[in-house]
């Protein structure tokens, strides 16, 4: 069995005849925090939709903990934690019911204790009995993150997970994710525009342009940019000409 938490192999995907991503390959090992960057419309969400199983690619393969998502989606998804967009959450369920449904889908008889602990740290606990469609954007964003962590997945996939979060809640979630990767050996694939995450937490970052990964930075390169005073934001801007 493949030892990587995620292997994306020469992926091509789009909608109808329109190709959105082409020849994308990424491998993530245990404990890795990988940040996917790029302008709006570059294909980040399409790539994450493929990894989460929401979109079937036209070519290539995706392995989660060594299991092909295309050939054995059931077993692959057991190792996946996906944070859907807040507007995709079922509005007629309570937050607790959402958590219970996700736990049941993972074959669990109860919601993880550490998920409830994070809910408490995020000050989300008072909303557990509230219906999703009554929650604010930031509160629904917290629920999406909690759902992604149920069952201690080998791979966590988050799309702009910090949008709408207040600074204190964002910091709690960042620290929790960082500790979880180190403690549990999960890998994290995060699409975001928040460059502070790259500079403080990422092991690797890559930019997606015109459907292809055109530049990747290792943790050491990110640290060198910060130390030099140039800054990662300048380096990123140089790869994304107007």
What does this structure look like?
- By secondary structure, the chain is of the alpha/beta class.
- It folds into 2 domains: 1-79 and 155-160 and 187-242, Rossmann fold (3-Layer(aba) Sandwich), CATH 3.40.50; 80-152, no CATH class.
- Helices cover 37% and strands 25% of the residues.
- It has 9 helices and 10 strands.
- It has helices spanning 44-52, 73-78, 95-105, 113-121, 137-148, 167-184, 195-200, 219-228, 232-239; strands at 6-15, 18-28, 33-37, 59-64, 67-68, 80-83, 155-159, 187-191, 204-209, 212-218.
- A 6-stranded mixed β-sheet has the order 6-7-8-3-9-10.
- Strand 7, helix 6 and strand 8 form a beta-alpha-beta unit.
- Helix 4 (113-121) packs antiparallel against helix 5.
- It is globular.
Question: Which structural traits does this protein have?
Answer:
2 domains; 242 residues; 4-stranded antiparallel β-sheet; Rossmann fold; 6-stranded mixed β-sheet; alpha/beta; globular
Topology:
Layout (H helix, E strand, L loop, with lengths): L5 E10 L2 E11 L4 E5 L6 H9 L6 E6 L2 E2 L4 H6 L1 E4 L11 H11 L7 H9 L15 H12 L6 E5 L7 H18 L2 E5 L3 H6 L3 E6 L2 E7 H10 L3 H8 L3
Parallel strand pairs: 3-8, 3-9, 6-7, 7-8
Antiparallel strand pairs: 1-2, 1-4, 4-5, 9-10
Helix pairs in contact: 4-5
Number of helices: 9
Question: Main sheet?
Answer: 6 strands, mixed
Query: Major sheet: order of its strands?
Result: 6-7-8-3-9-10
Per CATH, the class of the largest domain reads: Alpha Beta
What shape does the CA trace take? globular
What is the structure about, briefly put?
The protein has helices at residues 44-52, 73-78, 95-105, 113-121, 137-148, 167-184, 195-200, 219-228, 232-239, and strands spanning 6-15, 18-28, 33-37, 59-64, 67-68, 80-83, 155-159, 187-191, 204-209, 212-218. By secondary structure, the protein is an alpha/beta fold.
